[in-house]
Amino acid sequence: MLIVYGGLFFAMFFRIFGIQASGQVEGQALAAKAAAKYERSKVITANRGNILDRQGQVIAEDTINYRLVAVISPKASEGTKTLMHVADKEKTAKILAKYLSISEKDIFDKLNTKVKNAQGNEIRQVEFGAAGRNISHGVMEQISSEKLPGIIFMEETKRFYPNGIFASNLIGLAQRDTQQDGQTKTVGKMGLESIYNKELSGTDGRVQYKSDVWGYLLPNSNKMVEPAKDGADVYLTIDKTIQNFLEDSMSKVYKKYNPESMVAVVANPKTGEILAVSQRPTYNPQDGTGLENSWLNQLTELTIEPGSTMKTFTLAAAVEEDKWFPNATFQSGQYTVLDRTIRDSNQVGWGSISYLEGIQRSSNVGMAHLLKLMGDDTFISYMKKFGFGEKTGIDLPNEATGQILDKYPINRVTTTYGQGSTVTPIQLIQAVSAIANDGKMMQPYVIEKIVNPNTKKIVKENTPTIKGQPISEKTAKEVRKILASTIYSEKGTGQNFASKEYEVAGKTGTAQIPKASGGYYWGKNEFLYSFLGMAPADDPQLVMYIAVEKPKLGPTDVGSEPTSTVFNTVMGSSLKYLNIKPQKIKKTKSQTMENLKGQLVEDVEKEFEENGIETVIIGNGDKITDQYPAEKSEVLSGGFVFLKTDGDSVVPDFTDWSLRNVLTYQTMAGANIEINGEGYVQKQSVKAGTVLNANKKIILKMKKPEEIYK
């Protein structure tokens, strides 16, 4: 017996010694098995970052809600005097039916789920699908007050959009998703929520500790905590107040005119910041209503034929190239390019009209003549300078480029008035910023900054970026005056956009919509009506583009009514909100020339000065013998009128005169002028006020706008 027990003792001794030395039993690591059994780990979920407007007001944030779970296994109540499972299923089903969007019968059937499933595994608890999820704190408290045994609540976070329909196609949405590890997490699905999902999501933390087999923390065990890093907060350039103005107006017009689609954007032309953007149809990110009809972000992903809003840039190119002669005339109605003929909107035109009247009436033929004056290559080069045909670089994905058609002569002609070639709304906003911002074209952007909430440090910040300078400051100011005349002139197509408090400048557009099978739709309710405008005209603080596709117009409605309703409401309210002082609007921005021959110079000069028109007097007589422009021509405020009288003339101050004005003076005064350079006069060889001598040469040195404003 001594030998037997002694042998067993030594066998056990060597076994224990071997286990201690190797740490393994039958090839399995004991430390790993112990860790798996007694070490516990719990995920600390990081809070998703907020999306906020430029003032720090919340647009999207996480909120706490609850998921209802019913414990049905009687084993949960073993070893305790308190019921921990649903014992009275009929009572429980009856009470829960008062709070959940599910019938009492369905709840009762769910509570009667067999304790074991088909695989023989025990089912301890059941849930109630969508009806038992996203329960608010208030409803949770009401159900809890019923004191139903076995009914418990699991706390969860859900993305909350407090403003409902609010720049939805820009903001996007985020939803709960089940990850590969079985955990649920909020994930961005569309828009900025998806684009900046990584930044918004943050990094989950973790708690590791040792416990017994029942999960209780063991005495003296080390507890290690790796804290969660919350997601970054994304601040937008969007202004919540201006966005609300836009959403409200868009909804009213959409309801009244029932168009196929609408898109509108408001921006700061001095910085490129997008202050508001909306489209219809749209969706509510809170519940997904309307999502099936509104996936596309029309601001950057929609390409359109812009119609007459494109004339803004054709005009700017002509002015910059000194090919804009407002008082010269052309025959409106139709224009033939090789074997193709284009026509004005009324098909017959308005007879022989000035170029100024042509832009006011939105004459397609007038644009074709401007193209001829500029030259095709020059015109196309300006379209590229304005950024058409390439991405703006806005901080949003999937931006479309559009296409400027220039292969054939007819393509270049139709592009001058916005047909055939395509652009995006954001390209129009970028391009018009050059008109509104004294020649400097600003790159648009929607993200102001991204802030780390854990350190309060700015991890990304956008600042205004000048994308280019397609035109000079002088040209921009002149174009704004001309565009204002399209609204305040009796012949202007934009009269519906006139404001009583702020002078508006802009251009209407009526574009034909191409058919998938070829050709274009035609008819009052088949066009894309738009407006590209700014205010106040002398120093624009806001630019806005609004387009309405195929509105259902009434018998007496015109196409500009839906667009002007949105523009006037949003622009006026936004300027007041920004504390821009209202102006006293002058109703007349141009003057029709009369036959001035025989009238007193002093009286005529005074009248023109009151209307902001500069007069150039040739001679020192009292009465007018000749004039330019001729009778019935229109003169824009800020323009020139040449009045000839008898007697000696004096040399004027030619500074900043255009070539056209110099040649007009030369012809009427009989002056001997030599011109060096192109563009606008910067120096003259004979001092202003000197008596004009036809035998003495006056040398004028001119510079191009890009040289003057370099």
Automatic annotation (TrEMBL):
Residues 588-647, 648-704 form the PASTA domain. SUPFAM superfamilies: beta-lactamase/transpeptidase-like, Penicillin binding protein dimerisation domain, Penicillin-binding protein 2x (pbp-2x), c-terminal domain. GO terms for biological process: cell wall organization. It holds the Pfam family Transpeptidase. InterPro entries: Beta-lactam/transpept, Beta-lactam/transpept-like, PASTA_dom, PBP_dimer, PBP_dimer_sf, PCN-bd_Tpept. It is found in: Membrane. Keywords: Membrane. GO terms for molecular function: penicillin binding. GO terms for cellular component: plasma membrane. PROSITE patterns: PASTA. Belongs to the transpeptidase family. This is Penicillin-binding protein 2B (PBP-2B). It comes from Viridibacillus arenosi FSL R5-213.
